[in-house]
Structures are given as structure tokens and as C-alpha cells.
Amino acid sequence: MRKISGFNAVPAIIGSCLICISCGEKPVTPTLTTVNVDFVTSTTAVSGGNVTSDGGAPIVARGVCWSTASNPVIADDTTMVAGELGQFESFITGLTPSTKYFLRAYATNEAGTGYGYQMAFTTEPPVRIPLVTTGEITSTGSIYVISGGTMTDNGGEPCTVGICWGTSHNPAVTGSKDIKYLAEAGTFTCE
Fold first, then answer.
1. Other residues' Cβ atoms within 10 Å of the Cβ of residue 62
2. 32 within 8 A of 114, measured Cβ to Cβ
3. What's the N-to-C CA distance of the chain in angstroms?
4. When comparing pLDDT for 174 and 90, which is higher?
5. Tens digits of residue pLDDT in 91-115
6. Please, which of 46, 120, 133, 158 could form a disulfide with 39 given CB 3.0 to 4.6 Å?
7. Comparison of pLDDT for 20 and 42, the residue scoring more
8. DSSP conformational letter for 183
């Protein structure tokens, strides 16, 4: 048996340490699930995921990805949220009304990107513009006028209605106004 002494022992010890370090497992892609898609409107939705394993390396990005084609990837539309392991939620915007989308949660580490299972959802139809007619002026005073109108169609959602006025032709809501809230079609009075 040969004895290692002096300077020859140091490289041998360092070499065996490096061999042990390099024997460690390589990271794999993260493991996660996709959360149900909720609060779907004509242009938005909410979803998310739950990262259950980081794959042995820090998470550098996570969120959801979506597309009109199945099995979306991070090259498609995505959100990105901070964090590592655990649950997260993403607010999705810029969707097209009355369109079927596919969505998956994703998480990325140095080994690559892992995906949750795919979900499908369809956005709501476009919201219609409310229809309203201006009513007659029913009363005037030195500093007030009473008028109103009728909303015949709320466009599918509760609305803010009212009157606006100004000293020039065709006043707009960016100027003086009195507003009310109507959940459905009906008449309103403003001062």
C-alpha cells in the first residue's frame, strides 16, 4: 500500500470531494397543478396554480399561459407572479369575447419549465353599450335644473347613468354631471 503524504495528499482529497459533489442529483422541472378558471368575463379571467415541488432548483418564474390552441406554453400569452412553492393566483386580461381558450399553470427552474394540467374555458359574449334617452327638463331654478332619462337596455350589466351639462354644444361626461346607479332598465332623475 502506498502512502500519500505532503502535497500529494491535498489534490487527492480535493479530487475525491469534487467527485462526491458531482454525484448529486441533477434538478428536474418543477411539479405543479392548475387551479380552476373563475370570474370569466368577456375579456378577463382568474386562474393560478400550486407548485408542489421546485425540482431541486429555485423557481425563477411561475404563472399561467393560455392560447386558443391546446397545450399552451410559455411562448404563448402568459402571466408571471413572484414566489416559490405553494399556491398562486393570476389575473388574465386582454381576452377576446366569445372565444374558447386553453390554459395551464407553469413554473420554471434551471432544468426547464413544468406545466400543470390543461383547463378550457370560454369568455362571455361582448358587453353591449347601454341605450338611454334624455328626458325633458321638468323644473328649473336660479342655480339648478331637474331632468333625467330612461335607460331601455343596460347592455347586460348594471350601469352608471345620469345627465351632463356645459355651456357649449354636446356636453360630455368629462365635464359637469350628476350620476345615478341603475342595475337594470328604468327611469332616473338628476339635478
1. 29
2. yes
3. 106
4. 90
5. 999 999 999 999 999 999 999 999 9
6. 46
7. 42
8. S
Which amino acid is located at 51 in the chain? V
Residue range 142-158: mean pLDDT, rounded = 83
Q: Which residues have a Cβ under 8 Å from the Cβ of 155 and sit 6 or more positions away?
A: 127, 128, 129, 130, 131
Classify residue 26 as exposed, middle or buried by CB count within 10 Å of its CB (0-12, 13-18, 19+): exposed
pLDDT in tens, 4-41: 455 455 554 444 444 444 456 899 999 999 999 999 99
Bridge partners (DSSP) of residue 78 are 65
- Per the listing, cell 392560447 goes with 67
Residue 12 to residue 18: CA distance in whole angstroms: 10
- Phi–psi pair at 61, nearest 5 degrees: -160, 145
Task: Determine which helix (DSSP H) or strand (DSSP E) holds 140, and give its type and residue range.
Answer: strand 139-140
CB 77 within 8 A of CB 67: yes
Categorize the per-residue pLDDT at 161 as very low, low, confident or very high, splitting at 50, 70 and 90: confident
Q: Quick check: 97 and 126 in contact, CB under 8 A?
A: yes
CA 73, 74, 78, 80 torsion: positive or negative?
positive
**Sequential DSSP letters for 83-126:** -SSEEEEEEE--PPTT-EEEEEEEEEETTEEEE---EEEEPPPP
Mean pLDDT value of segment 72-100: 94
